[in-house]
Amino acid sequence: MTPMIKSLIALVLSIIGVHLVYIGYVRPEAQLALEAARQMGQSAPRDLVVILKDYEQEICLILMFWGAFLILEKCIAILKDRYLFTIDLLDGASEQVEDLKSVLNALGELPEKVKDTPLVRTLMSSVRRFLITSDVHNTSEAIESSVETLAVKQEAENSMIRYLIWAIPSIGFIGTVRGIGQALSMADKALAGDIAGMTDSLGVAFNSTLVALLISIGLMFLLHQLQRLQDGLVVDTQAYCETFLLNRISTVGSN
């Protein structure tokens, strides 16, 4: 299953799950709480269901779960392959070029999931470069190029997450504008002494912004944790190649 299909499935499940919770619990409970407050002549309560009841908050929660899935999926993929850095994947390589060819063939016979990891791809391209050029400096440049490509790829793959973190506060501000607009349309009733409609509309405005900003803060924290793991992957990949590959081929090239 491709990452795009997984992402779309996660989005659909987020929409269905959040909407079912809203129509089955959040909005009915919020309506009961608001009606009870009106009957008692009180303002809208600050219950969680009342804060979350509007459409903007529902959309923000959907995007929150989708964004969290995108981040956690990448984190799990990085952590799952961390064990490779504790293994000498070039075991058996020596001062003989034929041994490097054997190691390259062994890397190519690894399971597809392992062979597609950034570390193995970098090793294979670097060993192949050395076998073609027999130049250590050229191989070192190949390692640096592969690592830079990995960093650029990771940065590009995070673009959707950054968009979600930007979009969620924007949706909250849309709720703010909608709530203030509704409140202003009820100004004549407020002047007549009925301020219930205006306070409810202002509640929409402030609640949507509150929820959106809190969600944005949480997702930004998760994104920073992901970036920390990604930066560590880049650094560890380069260090691994220098330790297990360059040290060996430097010996080969000097003979």
Overview of the molecule:
With 255 residues, this protein is mainly α. It folds into 2 domains: 3-80 and 156-238; 89-150 and 241-254, no CATH class. It is 84% helix and 0% strand. It has helices at 3-39, 48-52, 55-80, 97-108, 112-115, 118-133, 136-157, 159-185, 187-191, 196-254. α1 (3-39) runs antiparallel to α3 (55-80), α3 (55-80) packs antiparallel against α8 and α4 runs antiparallel to α6. It is elongated and about 95 Å long.
Précis, in short:
The chain has 255 residues and is an all-alpha fold. 84% of the residues lie in helices and 0% in strands. The chain has 2 domains: 3-80 and 156-238; 89-150 and 241-254, no CATH class.
Notable characteristics:
255 residues; mainly alpha; 2 domains; 10 helices
